[in-house]
Specification:
Number of strands: 26
Strand order of the largest sheet: 2-11-10-3-9
Structural class: alpha+beta
Number of domains: 6
Distance between the termini: 57 Å
Number of helices: 26
Shape: globular
Amino acid sequence: MSADVAVELMTEDQARTELARLSKIMLAANTDYYTAEPKLIDADYDALKARNTEIETRFPALKRSDSPSDVVGAVPAAGFGKITHAMRMLSLSNAFDDSDVEDFDISIRKFLGTHTALRYTAEPKIDGLSLSIRYENGALVYAATRGDGETGENVTENARTISDIPHLIPNAPDILEVRGEVYMSHADFAALNARHSERGGKIFSNPRNAAAGSLRQLDADITRARPLKFFAYAWGELSQPLADTQMGAINALKSFGFSINPLTKLCANPQELVEHYHHIEKQRATLGYDIDGVVYKVDDLAMQARLGFRSTTPRWAIAHKFPAELAWTRLEAIDIQVGRTGALSPVARLTPVTVGGVVVSNATLHNQDYIEGRDSKGEEIRGGKDIRIGDWVQVYRAGDVIPKIADVDIDKRNGNETVFSFPTTCPECGSDAIREEGDAVHRCSGGMICPAQAIEKLKHFVSRGAFDIDGFGAKQVEQFYNDGWIKEPADIFKLEELYGSGLQQLKNRDGWGPKSAQKVFDAINVSRNVDLARMIFGLGIRHVGDSSAALLALNYGSWDKFEAAMTEAAIGESAIWDDLLSIDGVGAVMAKSLVTAFHQESERASIDRLAEQLTIIDAKQPANDSPVTGKVVVFSGTLEKMSRAEAKAKAESLGAKVSGSVSAKTDILIAGPGAGSKAKKAADLGILTLDEDGWLDLIAPK
């Protein structure tokens, strides 16, 4: 089953199946969480969400239109009126380890282009129900649940019954949306359940469910009888700023009469954030209400504005969740799976054990070094202890449904354990399994003669982000490959030609009828006309994902130009190689992989046979009427008003192509202090050179 396969070991077919399974479970869980009584605990939901994200990251072409990663909350229930939020109510990305907090800080400072230490607020993450309350001219106008982030349920009359929520705020801005969490204390929860038990009423499973059920009563009198509380910690639409900082704004909410969490603290660096996290964690059992982590936010609101948002989460905040559970079990065997790029991945087969409410029987072991007790740099992990078949191992789940091996108990070894010898040949085809210098994994050298690689490459080729042939998926790939009908992508387009009676042969096979057979041949013919980006991505070249393929397509424009460049490029020693590396977002590793693919005789021949079957459509340039649309721009030196990441994102949003080096193809150089050789080269080539102010003036709305 796909649910039992580690993400790094998945085939595309398994990934597609697993994404469908996760989507169904998580969308139902969202509905339960926001509109009913949840059936999943938070740790399990977080694990599912992280697994979904990890699969989408590895297989971006398979991301579903109903992906849970794009969903916030759930559709409002029919029994309530609906309210559209003036500003979306988003969720937060998660951190699970102390090191993730350091990474969060680094990513923030990198985006902002600053080395200066930043201040953050840290506050307990209340396990309750999100609520947005709107005030106009100081009067409470309405209150709405999060809903799906865009539209929530109108629970205004119920919110008025909560004593922590003022009805009138004399000193409030003209428009004020206060956001926070409705919750129930442990003591009130116990008393509520006791009362219900006495009269045979519903018994709630936990305080969060009780709070959610109480706030969402159609009869406000029932809500009034429930002991709900409210912590304020954020805001939506404002007619004027509350303060210049997060902490200042929180204190402003307090001055309006709202309860704010007394454990909220201003921290000077990531170390202080982690210290406060552990301080709160130690008090968790005695707080009197449920929390499931600590939320960190950039304190400076101007910086929050610069950082902005991803699709469903802000860049300037993260939730540091409390750790998942650990368990010990026996390692019964280690199997090797072979992926599309030939990577040999070890999988631990475990004596089934329950970890965080889930029965686990498999775990990833990453690679040979991990098994032998070393990291990618050769440094010891787990104190240098290796992992052996028969060992007693510690399994953990931290943001991943498929667990990992955290530790091994060598004191329990009895001499019957077996040291695992990593194979030097592919278990699928017998070809040499080679580990290149600098690579963490062994790879099968068999290429397309290896059935595992050939099938996985073909599955990738027909996947949604590549050629997306309707009715021709992973199942059909395996069927046709095993029957000898296809061995490489070009064969797909020769099916009718090679089998003059292909329709006749196909329609009589199990699972096929005349209509389904004709449909798949029609879909194959439709896909002969393919966009350049899909063509590049469909080749399945290592290190080239769909976004990289789109970037390459945009820069080369046509298949002829792309194919010629890859043919003529000599790794490390040609102008065309330099041009390839100058594309912002293309590094030496990707470039080498691309050029190598086009210079390997058998792979190049396969690519050429494929191209002969197709009409490859030129890439469309971004539709934009900005003054830099279609221009090649280079940023050099120090930018003082925005980070390099901000500048690049802005330029690309206006239709410009951002390059990493100056060449005759460059249209504009934006040179800050320290531009150096790039500024000199631009001057020699007569390229327009602007300082940062000149660039901002050029792209400013006119």
